[in-house]
Amino acid sequence: MSDTNVSASPSRRRFLATASGLVAAGVASPVLAQDAKIDAKALPPNVADWSKALGEGVVAHPYGSPSKFEKHVIRRDVEWLTASRESSVSFTPLHELDGIITPNGLCFERHHSGVAEVAPQDYRLMIHGLVERPMIFTFDDLKRFPRVNRIYFLECAANSGMEWRGAQLNGCQYTHGMVHCVEYTGVPLKVLLAESGIKPSAKWVLAEGADAAAMTRSIPLSKILDDCLVAYRMNGEMLRPENGYPARLVVPGWEGNMWVKWLRRLKLGDEPWETREETSKYTDLLADGKARKHTFVMDAKSIITSPSPQAPIKGKGFTVISGLAWSGRGKVKRVDVSVDGGRNWREATIDGLVLDKACVRFYAQTQWNGEPWLLQSRVIDETGYVQPSKDDLRKIRGVNSIYHNNGIQTYAVKPDGEVENVEVS
Ligand code: MTE
Ligand code: CO
After folding, report:
1. Is 130 in the same domain as 179?
2. Ligand nearest to the Cα of 155, by number
3. Which residue's C-alpha comes closest to atom 10 of ligand 1?
4. Which of 161, 156, 292, 282 is nearest to 218 (CA)?
5. Last residue of a domain, which of 292, 322, 355?
6. Residue 313 falls within a domain, yes or no?
7. Which of 292, 325, 346 finishes a domain?
């Protein structure tokens, strides 16, 4: 990939042709998106209207929202994946984001029975079963406990689930948008369980949601005591209703389905309960008819978010390839990118925080001059696990699965800069 490397020092690089030169030649700058109509009166050397009048005053919007020019940055759903609005999923617009934190209003949502509306004064969390003292906590009780702040990714086990048999959906929002990465504030479960006490025979915990689905999952007690939280804030503010207000379970690195929202009950027991969500769902049917079960950990995965089908390349020359990577087993160690379908790899730069079971942001600076690319990324985590190709994954798991598809994504970049979800073998 040496031909795609940018070797000049940053101070001497010219990333884009200078805008003034292009304007003088009567050509729109590549930075100003072709999609929007340009108001010539607003451009230098004129003084734009927004500089000639007072703007809106403070508290015009008591709860702020993004600029009206960013209206396209929204969660989206896929009609044919939507059986009913209440049992459905919306996808994070990964192609419109940067850094690692997902803004609250853009976090994908997955509901099995719609959003439960739970009033904080009526919220209760019951802890019972194999405990010394069964307890019921109010929401105010929860907020009085010592708390921690942790950034974690949450990935639905069904993320990329439509791609098992081949390229199907077009755009990382749809193929990979069932992931978000948020800073949670909450109480470690080991703190709450110290209040109730734990009977020596306890090995498992049943977590139940207060929504009409009464979503229930069995979680090993060792995981609960290791790093699970009862969270009530995301990115500083209280949880959004769609993400489990007022309190949800945080199960770092494990299937999103286990992160029970509107958490109402934790029962300690000595064996798993074999609920619907861990038997007929969230198990992986293999080619020989057997099913993998208790596949809790989300294996390492990465996705290029730009360029991507919803974020095509808009001009030849300097191009930043950007994406997200994560691992349910710990920290991301390295991310590689390829422009030739995985024949040659080059190490990407990870910029920003590298945290346990959180997303990292990676970049690879390149030149693109209209040549066709087969663009890929692959992550390697701190355990040495390497993200597999889709073919390698299918060799082991067959194509009957829905869940746990962490295979390498391929994009074809066309000469006009358009990008398409494809497969290579
Ligand atoms: N908890 C309850 N009570 N009900 C649900 O439908 N959906 C689960 C999990 N917790 C769900 C739930 C699934 S499948 C996922 S992937 C995550 O919540 C999604 O969390 P989010 O909506 O905050 O993105
Ligand atoms: Co899910």
Report:
1. yes
2. 1
3. 260
4. 282
5. 292
6. yes
7. 292
